[in-house]
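Cast an eye over this sequence plus tokens and walk me through the fold:

***
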Amino acid sequence: MRTDIPRVPPLSDEALDEDTRARFGGAFVLNIFRTLAHHPKLLKRWLVFGNHILAKNTLPERDRELLILRIGWLCRAEYEWTQHVVIGKRAGLSDDDLARIAIGSAAEGLDPFDRIQLRAVEELHGDAHISDGTWAALAERYDTQQIIDLIFTVGQYQMVSMVLNSLGVQLDAGLARLPEGKRP
């Protein structure tokens, strides 16, 4: 974590506004949502977009998680990385995949299309642009909607990483911090 204490503390159950409480229907509310609940109108609108990216876009789940994990790593967003390791494993990523994602597109043993996707994330993060060569390689497997979803996925999670890092959102209960040499 970039900060050991939250700059904006997560709201308690009692402090959540009625609409936010209803939105989560009594389920466990993650710290990211408890923190963003300080701005309920933004949270409400952002959840619609975030839900598309996380659950309704055209990318295969495993690919989506590979993208999210790489941008989380590049942004040094431990909260994002830790949350999406759990989701990524459910989507089929292995511990070896996770180690390679942390290294990036130069990692040994990467699946060729995983390498292309990681390169796209790195290009978007570094230059806000996908190069012609990477675009052509993506277009061999992805249609236009999928490439658009890839760009929006990376952009969404770069923004989320900025929010998490800047607000100091702390890990949720039950998630262990990454060891010192293995943190984003």
User: Anything to note?
Assistant: The chain has nine helices and no strands.
